[in-house]
Structure formats: structure tokens, C-alpha cells
Please model this.
Amino acid sequence: MMSTGVTMRKWKANLRSVGASLLKRSLLAATAAVVALTFAQTGQAQAPCLVARGLDPLDILNSGVRHNVWIVLDSSGSMGSNFGGGQTRMEVARDVLTEVIDEFIDASGRPLVNWGYVRFGQNNRDSNTECNAQFTNSCVGLNMAQLINPPACDEADSSLSIKSALSSAVHGNGTPVDGGWTPNGISMDQVSAAIDTNGFVSGLLPNQKNFVILVTDGDDTCECGGSVWSPTPSPPFGGSTTIPNQLRGSTATSAYTNNASGSTDRRAINAATKGRLSYQRLNPTPTDQATGAKGGAFVVGLGLSTGAQRRLNHMAWEASGAFHGNPDAYHALFANDRDAMKQALRDAFARIGVPSSEVALGSPVVGTVREAIPYFTNPYVTSSDHIGDVGPSAPDVDDIREARKIRANHRDNVLFSTTVEIPNFKGHLRAFNTYTVTDNSNARAFRTADFTEMWDAGTLLRDRSPDSRNLLFNRRGETLLRSFTTSNVLASDLGVGPGFLSVIDGFGALTADDARDMVVQVVRGYRLSKDPTTNTLYKPDGSINFSQYESDGSTKTWKLFDSIAAPAVMPAPTRSPDFDPPLNHAAKYGVGGSYAGQGFFWDHFNRQTMVYLPTNGGVMHGFDAGTGEEVFGYLP
Model:
């Protein structure tokens, strides 16, 4: 219902204060710490952020997980060559990279990735006879003094410092001289080593990845060209210890079809071996390497001949994991002018994307859930003493005393936490036991910490049929509750008519009732999308193209969106809401109808514990606190 169809996310109400006075917020620091660890992952790469309650859902992206991306810029002498429009390759590279950094931002202006940057240093290589058997040579590779690492999420983004560094970058023919050789392989080796050493691999957040984008204009001229060497035991390589004396073609399936024909090809093979090492550093385990689970690299070539493109493709395949079978391994991206370079970087960024992650929405809330208390451990309390609203018609005093003692031993026994998956905004409301009571018969029962997950309302609601939900609404100016169904809701209730959602297919709803049906059914949990055969919101038979499943045809639609307030826990009534010890409230409730004596408290002693949660789906949800099932939903 998110990316391929319609999302009715703005049917929301300002419900943040509902039930606020009813919440139990007295949570021990130790409990909070344990629960925080459930949802927050720490690391060098990016510290976790906690999203405040009531934050606009689109702004949640600002605090979510972002991939780390290092730009590696070629500053060799050939970058001074003309690249069209009266600009050199270096000038175009500086301008376009700056534009891309400014372009890839969210609505608040924050970059969609955590940018890093480094450029080539001053490089002079050994002769072929001196370096044939060496992994490294006299080329220094990168100017590591100018390395800028991505920031943590609680730090200012690095865009300004990177754009400043770009503005001062010069090619090898400039002043001061930054060197003329092209150390593509050494640079990939060095940047991956720095990423690993600085904790960006071990400190990745869930679903976060590290990427390198190498922007270069030529063949590697730093590697040995006399022969193709075998990597030494240090650094180690996974899989085969050698790369054949051949180059990969332009596709992964044509790997190693082109024989190396000279020193330039041999340098490319040696450089690509270091590209493979870079990939293996970013993906240290065989499982990671098979899928690129922790990142990879993209290579952008500027103004290259056909032969140079073939050789740079070899570097791109190895640096993105083709050797290990990564299905997302990618060929090099080529550009012969400014516009093509910008498009190449856009293509790379489209493949990097925004990671899926789960963000905690504010602090967890603790409540007392009667249904989660194991009454069966006490012989004095039977099921009739705790099931239903008022319980037995004539409750036994001793039984009630035992029930109250058990409940006292289980105060604040469940913790509720809300999170949201981004970028698809799937909401979660999870319940956890906070402790286990070892002896209910003891007035001061011993407790042991126990944070076992009881349920997730998001997954439970996903598995519900949209038609089985009890959704309610009232018309403006009325108090009568009606079922939120197509038979009860009018198009005028929603302010929709023909042409609604025409932005999707050019036509939209054909009638007002169809527009009404689209809103109601999507809110209930149906997915609405264009039919592939008609290219409209209607099927060939004229019916609206609804589905209970996502676009894969098998996964049920997600129906719980991100919360806009803390969950409110409504337990069974306390014996004395105003005084302790309980008093006879005859003056307030009338003679014989006191709250705790003969009235409300006993009448609702076993009232169902509820959890209320307003979300950006436009619904105030009421969940059974014991099971997590949605009891009802109210649309203001």
C-alpha cells in the first residue's frame, strides 16, 4: 500500500493528550536501559536517535538510518584535460559532485546519506621491474590527511566541509602539484582499510551499509604492469588467492572473457584485486559477501576510451562483489560530459537508496495488565474471579482479597513500545513482560527481570482481514457511532468526488461513490493500485483494483501506521482513585453507591485492560492489552 498504491496517511487527528492522566510512567532506570537496548543499536558509524512523540512522520526520515558513502576523487594530472563547455574534468567533477550533494536531501535539507570524502595524493610509482612481486609500491594513493568521515546522527552533517574540500581540489598539473599518477587500486585498498579501522564496518546499524564511489578519468597507472601477481598472505583474500590473467567483460556473465594483452591490462587486473579486497573488508563474512549485505562500491569513469572502459569495468565488478556472486554487483558508469556525469551519479545513488530501518518513537510506557497476571498459580482465585467485566455476581471476600494481592504483586508488569519502519512507515506497538513473579502468595513477591515479547499489534493487525476490523466513525455534528464501511460512509462525509486520485492514472475515480470506496477500503487495509492490464485504478471487469495483499501477491497489507502520541493504558479501576486508604464517597457518588464500597470499583473490578494508540493512518486504535488484537478503531 506504500510504494505502488495509495496511502491515506493524512487522516490524522490531534489526539496526543488522550488518556495522558491515566498513564503509569514510573519506570525504573534499569528497566528503561534494558528496553532501550532492544531498539537502539550503537556504533561508531552512526549513533541512534530517538524520535520525539508527535513528530511529523515525514520528518522521521531525518532521524532514521542512512547509508555511509565515501567519495574518492581522482586528482591525477589527466583530470586537467578538457571535458567540454570550456571546463576541465576536475572542474566538472567538483561542480557536479557539489550539485549532487545539494540535490540528495530530504524535505528538511538534510542529506539522504552520510557523506564522506577523500582525494588522491601525490603519487610516483616504482618501475615495473621493482614492483612486480609487491602488493604496494611507491605510489602513496590517497591524501589521507584530507579524509572526511561520515558523521554520527547526533553530529552536524559533513556536506559543508566536503564541498569546501571539493572547491580546493586541483588536478596534477595545477599549483600546488598533487601528483600525476592514477592509483585506483591503492585508493580502494586504503579507503576500505580506513573504513574498517575507524569502526564503520563493525558499528553498522541495522540495514545500514558502507559504499565507496570512485570518480576517476583513466586507467590505473600505479600498479605493476610487468606481470599479474598473486596476493601475499597479508592482506588475505577470500576464495581463490589469484585473479586470472584476464579481465571481466562489460557484464558479470561475460566475466574473464578478455585476455590481458599488455602492461595496461595487467595493471588493471592488479588494481581490481585490491578492489576485491576492498569489497571483502566492507563485507567481512562469506554470508555478507554473497549478498553485499554491508556495502560495496561504484566506479564512475570520465572520458574513457573503449579499452579503458573495459578495464574500469573489471575494477567495478571486483569492487562490488561479482567474484563472490553478489547479485547487486554493478558495472562501471561512464560519462563524456557534465550531464552524463550527473546522471551516472544519480544512477549510483538510486542503487544505494535509503535503507529500511526501525526507529523508536519516544520512550516506552509501562502499564498494569490484569490479563497478563498468572492467576492460575494461586489456589484461592478461580477463572470466575478474573474473567469478564464485573466477575462473579456475588464475589467471595476472601477470593477478592487474594485477587487484589496478586494484582499488587504485578503492578506495572507490561512495557509498551512504539516504533516505525522507514521508509515505508510500518508502525509497531509491542508489549513486553517487565518481570516474572516467583511467589504470588507472598505479599512481597520476589521479581526477576523478564523482557519477553508478548505480542506485536502491527503484525497481528497485518494478518487480519480488512473486512473483519471494527472501525467506527461519527458524522460531523453527530454523536452516533457508525461502522466505517462503504454502506455507511457518504462521499460528502469525506469531501471526495469523480476524478479523485487522478494523479495516479490520469482518470482517478469515475464516480463519487467510487471515490468514497477508495478512501474507505484503503483505510480499512486494502491496497489500491493501477491494474497492469488497464493501466487505471480499475480492473477489466470495471471493479476497483483492490487487493488484500502487497504487490508480491502473498504478503498481507500492513495496516498500522506510525504513532503520533504515546500509547495510553486503561487498566481495571483502582480501588481508590482519590484517597489512600479508600474512603466511602457517599457525598460524591450517593448513599449506597460509593466508588469503592458498593459501586463502580466492584462493578468493573475485572474490566478489560485496553491500550489506545492514535496513528497517522487516521485511526485511534483500541487494542486488547493482553493479546494485542485490535478491538476497535475510531476515526474522528
Summary: The two ends are 22 Å apart (CA to CA).
